[in-house]
Structures are given as C-alpha cells and as structure tokens.
C-alpha cells in the first residue's frame, strides 16, 4: 500500500475538525484545505481564539451561562428583572431566548435533562442550586423553558413538584402552532395541544 | 438594549468557526458549545493542531501537495510510477484520487483553473513548473484530471496545446455515466458524451 497522501499533522487536524457537530470526515478535509489557504486571516486567529476561550470561558457560578466573567454578563446586567428566573436545559437555549429577545429576567442553566434510562438524576443537574436561588425574596417567578420531549416534560414535572411554594409562581412556555406554521405540516400532538389550550381572541 | 449574553472571547471564536466551509453562524455556535464541553479531549488539542499545522504544513516544491515534509510523502514514495503525472486543480482533487486508489503515479497541483473572467492567467497557476517537470526523460504521460466545467475544460485545452511534444502522451479522465448512476437522473450533456464515446463490450 502506498503512503497516505496526508501527513500526520494534517491528518490530526482533520480528525479533530471532524469531531465538530456539523462537520463530517469529508467536510473536515475541505475545512482543513480552506484553513491552510487562509493561514494569517483565519487559521492562526482560530488557534488563538480556541486556546484563549478554553482558558478564560467558564460556567457562571450563578446561572451556568458560559462567559469570561463570573458572574456572567447576563447576571450582572442591572437592567434585567431579577424577579423572574428562566430555566433552560443548556446554554444554547439561553442564547436562543436572548436572540428572540423573549426574556428580560435572569436564567438558570440545568446542564441537561433528567433521564432515568441514561442514569441522569437530579444530582447530576443544577436543580439543588435552582431551588436555593428561588428561596431568596427577590425571585417571584420561575419560567420552565425545556424541550417538549419526554425527558423535557419529565424534568419540568420534577421541577414543578420541587419548586412548589406559596410565594413562587411556576410557569412554562406555552405549546401550540409555531408563528408562520402551516397546520398541514404540524404533527397531531402539537395540533391537539393547541386546540386544548385554545384562547379567546 | 441588554448586554449580549455571549462574551467577546466566545463571540470571536464563534465568528472564526463560522468562516469554515460547511459551518454557518448557527452551527458555529453549536460547535463552540460542544468545544467548551470537550476542552481537554478536543478544544485544546484542536488549538494545538491548528497552530502546529499552520507552522509545519507547506506546499510541496515538486507537486504542490500540502505536507509537513518537502518533497511531500507522495513525491518521495519509491513505489510510485514516476513516468505518469496527474494534473489536478487543487489538493482536494489529489486526495480524492488517492482515496479512490485511482492513480499510482505522481501529481501536479495547478493551484486553480484558468479563468479570463476572474483574471486568472497561466502565470497565476503552476503551469510553467508543470511544463518544466514534463521535460525530464522520466515523464512519459500527463493525465489531465480537471473538473468538467467551462474553466476546467479551458484549462485542459491550454495544457494540451502547451504540453504537445513527440515523446509525451497527454490524456484526460473519460467522461460518462457514473458507476451506480441511474440514466434517468443524469443530465443531457453527460448522456450525450457517454453515447458519443461508447465502447465495444
């Protein structure tokens, strides 16, 4: 067998790039060739940005968001409504809600969902810390913003049970027809839920 | 407006990742979150692999392949047939032919295609070096393996004209029905070319 046309340094780079979600072995090769052509403007800055972020970015000790300051920029933002905590599975959910401008309060990142089958229990998530945070007088409402999947709903129910208290309002995102969604393309579960929770116009 | 939930270090990483072919702004965010969760096994090694490859990988002075040794592993491989040079547009073509095990000779990477509209002329490519390489007694055949596009065909014709000599065979990849290809899904140009160059079975 002839020697591989790809040297060890390049092969290692391709193998690591291929681990990124959204890139496979073939697109990792394309990405590596692109980077070699753009050494100064992209490849070297990316190497630096990776090691810089790996060094500096940590989980916020308050909410679990990733940031280079602790507490994170969201938690220290004076403009935000400190009486509402929005519970998300992970940081991508926080970013999605921020992108939508849908929440002006603070967040709490659970770090996953309860999943008995995968052996993920309450102690593997930041549920204890969430309960602690809600015990201050400041917090009046917890919005549960978890995925509408089995694990998401299991986790939501667990949270509702454990957050129950006289002076705390616990809410969740409503389910229904997405804005711009055609009824014909929606699954039956969503349509049934939207009908059940129909509202007067 | 509230502060961005994404700090500057993280934002810079996302912006650089989004430049990779195959990743957009949204998948770059997903990739960044993945990397932050996999700091030890992926993020730090990737930072190292990037700067290591940026330092060590150069274009082979013989054929133009990327490698950390010069001449590259393909050019120094004693097992290869030094009488056949295969001309490719870029290194991805070389890798594709190697993956297929389709060529046992050496390569020549042009570094692009002639494109009068984009101002790419013969001097912007390694055509001079190719002609020089074919002038040794060793080289008996040049296989032109360029894309079947307008620029690819223009470049192929230019090469054929300039490589013409009594003791050099110039060939090109044949065009036709891809292996496993359904006739119904093929474009008319390919079908017409396959019919025109039909062969006895």
Largest sheet of chain A: 4 strands, parallel
Mean pLDDT of chain A: 91
List the chains of the largest interface with their residue counts. A-B, 62 and 62 residues
**CATH architectural arrangement of the largest domain in chain A:** 3-Layer(aba) Sandwich
List the strand order in the largest sheet of chain A.
Answer: 4-3-5-6
The poorly predicted ranges of chain A are none
Compute the gyration radius of chain A: what is it?
Answer: 22 Å
Intertermini distance of chain A: 73 Å
The tally of structural domains of chain A comes to 2
Query: What general form of chain A does the structure show?
Result: globular
| Helix proportion of chain A | 40-55%
Alpha-beta content class of chain A: alpha/beta
CATH topology of the largest domain in chain A: Dna Topoisomerase Vi A Subunit, Chain: A, domain 2
Order of helices and strands of chain A: HHHEEHEHEHEHEH
What is the multimeric organization of the chains shown?
homodimer
Question: DSSP helix count of chain A?
Answer: 8
- Strand percentage of chain A lies at 5-15%
CATH class of the largest domain in chain A reads Alpha Beta
Strand elements of chain A, count:
6
């Amino acid at each position: 067998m002839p020697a591989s046309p790809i040297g060890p340094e390049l092969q290692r780079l391709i193998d690591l790039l291929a681990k990124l979600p959204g890139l496979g072995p073939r697109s990792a090769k394309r990405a590596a060739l692109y980077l070699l052509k753009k050494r100064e403007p992209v490849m070297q800055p990316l190497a630096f940005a990776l090691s810089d972020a790996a060094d500096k970015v940590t989980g916020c000790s308050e909410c679990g968001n990733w940031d280079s300051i602790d507490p994170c920029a969201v938690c220290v933002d004076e403009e935000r409504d400190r009486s509402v905590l929005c519970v998300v599975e992970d940081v991508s959910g926080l970013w999605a809600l921020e992108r939508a401008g849908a929440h002006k309060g603070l967040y709490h990142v659970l770090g996953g969902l309860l999943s008995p089958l995968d052996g993920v229990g309450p102690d593997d998530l930041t549920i204890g810390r969430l309960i602690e945070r809600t015990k201050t007088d400041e917090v009046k409402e917890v919005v549960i913003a978890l995925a509408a999947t089995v694990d998401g709903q299991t986790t939501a129910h667990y949270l509702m049970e454990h957050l129950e208290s006289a002076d705390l309002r616990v809410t969740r995102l409503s389910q229904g027809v997405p804005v711009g969604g055609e009824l014909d393309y929606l699954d039956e579960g969503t349509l049934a839920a939207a009908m059940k929770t129909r509202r007067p116009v």
